[in-house]
Amino acid sequence: MRIAFLGLGIMGRPMATRLVAAGHELSVWNRTARQHIDGANTAVSPADAAKEAEVVWICVADTAAVERVVFGDDGALQSLHEGAIVVDSSTISPSATARFAERANERGVHWVDAPVTGSKIGAENGQLIFMVGGANEPIEYLDPLFKAMGKLVIHMGGTGKGQAAKLCMNLQLALIYEGFAEAFTLSQKLGVDSHKLLELIQASMVRSGAIDYKAPFVMRRDYSPNFPLRLMHKDIHLMLDVAKENRVKLPALETVDEIYELSSEEGWDDLDYAATLSLLEKWAGITPKAAK
Amino acid sequence: MRIAFLGLGIMGRPMATRLVAAGHELSVWNRTARQHIDGANTAVSPADAAKEAEVVWICVADTAAVERVVFGDDGALQSLHEGAIVVDSSTISPSATARFAERANERGVHWVDAPVTGSKIGAENGQLIFMVGGANEPIEYLDPLFKAMGKLVIHMGGTGKGQAAKLCMNLQLALIYEGFAEAFTLSQKLGVDSHKLLELIQASMVRSGAIDYKAPFVMRRDYSPNFPLRLMHKDIHLMLDVAKENRVKLPALETVDEIYELSSEEGWDDLDYAATLSLLEKWAGITPKAAK
Q1: Is B166 marked active-site?
Q2: Is-above-0.90 flag for pTM?
Q3: Which fold has domain B2-158?
Q4: ipTM
Q5: CATH topology of domain A165-284
Q6: Collapsing DSSP states into helix, strand and coil, what is residue A152?
Q7: Domain assignments of chain A as residue spans, ordered by start
Q8: Alpha carbons A11 and A122: distance in angstroms, whole number
Q9: Which residue out of A51, A120, A161, A166 is catalytically annotated?
Q10: If you placed Cys at A47, which of A1, A40, A78, B126 could pair as Cys (CB 3.0 to 4.6 Å)?
Q11: Can you tell me the distance from the alpha carbon of B66 to that of B226, in angstroms, rounded to the nearest whole number?
Q12: How many of the other CB atoms lie within 10 Å of CB of A145?
C-alpha cells in the first residue's frame, strides 16, 4: 500500500519502520529535523508525502499538530484523492476528532482515529494495541497495516471513540503511576526495602505491566523519556477538558494534574512522566542516591 | 500447634478454617456473635482462647481492637506463657505495632506483624501473601502456619515493617481503583462500550489482578462487601497518619480520602469499597441500570 507517514517521534518512527518492513511503500515526513527511514521516501511536507497515498498515517504530538498536518497550507489534504483514508494514531481530543472527520469527509476522505497503547517497546516489537473509532469499511481495509504494527485492534465504535478510549486508558495509567509513586515515597520514609516492596507488588493483585515496566527505571532514577511528561500532561488536560464538556468530575485526576503542573515548573517536561516521583521525594526530604 | 485465633471476619474465618484443616489445635474467638468453626474450640474471651496457646493469631478491624484483644481485661496476654508468639494479621498502625511489640516483649512474648494481601478468595484458597515484620526466630517457627494459609511470605524487616508494607500496598490499591472508577465514569459519558473498555484494559499494561477481580462486580453494580469501604477508609486514615508522622505528602491519596469520606456520609460504609464509583456516577448524572 502507498502510505504517507507523518510524525517520526518516539512512537511514529518504529511504527513507520514496521510498515516499511512489511513491504509497504512509505513516504515519511517529520516536522523537526528532516528524518530518514531506510527504504522510505523522505517528503518535504505533509502534502508532498500524501501525493498518491492511499493512506495517511499520523502520529504527532497534539490536536493542533494534527490540524496543521492535515488541514494546513502544506497539509496532506492538499494532495489527497477521494477515497483515501486518514488514520490518526496521535492522542487528541475526541470532539476535535469529530470535527476533523467531518471536514475530511466533505472532501471524500475517510477518517479513522486509532490511538495506540503499548509504549515505545510495543511499537518496536509490533505489539501495539489499537483503539479504533470510525466506519467499518476503511477499518477493515486497514487491517494488514494494523497487523504489521500491533497485536490487537479493538473497534471501539464510531468516530472519536478510539480517542475516548485512549483517554480512559491514560487516565488509569496516570493514577496507577501516582499510586506507585506515593507508596514508593512513603515506603522509603518508613524504611521498607525497595526491592522487597517491588517483589511484593509483583506477587500481588496491584501488579500491572505499567509498573513492571517502569520500576527498573525508577530504581535507578533513570527518567530518560519513554513517555515524556509533557505528553502525559497534555493527555491529562485532554481528559479534564472532555470531562468538563461532559459534566464529569474526576477528583483524583485533578490532583494529579497539579503534580504535573508543578513538575513542569521544575523543568521536567522532557523527562519521562515517571519523574513526577521526584516531586513527592523532594517534599518528603528524600535525596535518592541514583537521582539526577 | 496450639493456636488461639482472634477475629473471624471476612479474612479471619477462612484463615482459621485453613489452620484447622492443616491439623492444628484451634481455640477461636470473635467479638460479635459467638462463631463456631468445625473442629475448633469456641472460646468465651481472648484470654480464654489464649490459654496454653503457643501462638495467638489476630485478625481484627483496627488498632484499638488489637490493643483490646491483647492488652484488655480479658485480653490474650492475661493467659499467655513466656515464649508465646502474637501474630497480627490485622492492618494497623506501624508505630502502634512497635509499642504493642514492646509491651508484649516485656512479658516475654514475641510479636510478629503479618498483614495479608490477596482478599477473601486468597484466604479461602490458601493463596494469601504475608508481609511480615519482626525477629527471624519466631517468624521461622511460624513457617508451617504461614504455608497453611498463604502462597508467599515476605520478611520485610523488623517490627512494624510488615504493616508499613501493607499500607503501601493498599495505597496503590486505592489509587488503582480510583483510576478505574474515574475512567469508567468518563467512558460511560463518552459512549464507550463498557465491555470493550474492559477488553482493552485486560489486553494492556494497565491490567491488574485488582481490576480483573473487581470489574465483574462493578459491571453488575454488585457492591456486596469483599473489602468493606469502612476498612479501606480506615486504612487510608492510617496511611495519612503515618505520612504525617513522617512528613510525607500524598496528594492523590488525600483526594481519595475525601471521596471515601463522602461515600461514608452516603451510608455506604458496609458496602465494598468499589461503591465509591457510585459517587462519581452520581456527580456525572449517570444512573447505571444495575445500580441499587
Answers
A1: yes
A2: yes
A3: Rossmann fold (3.40.50)
A4: 0.95
A5: N-(1-d-carboxylethyl)-l-norvaline Dehydrogenase; domain 2 (1.10.1040)
A6: strand
A7: 2-158, 165-284
A8: 9
A9: A166
A10: A78
A11: 21
A12: 24
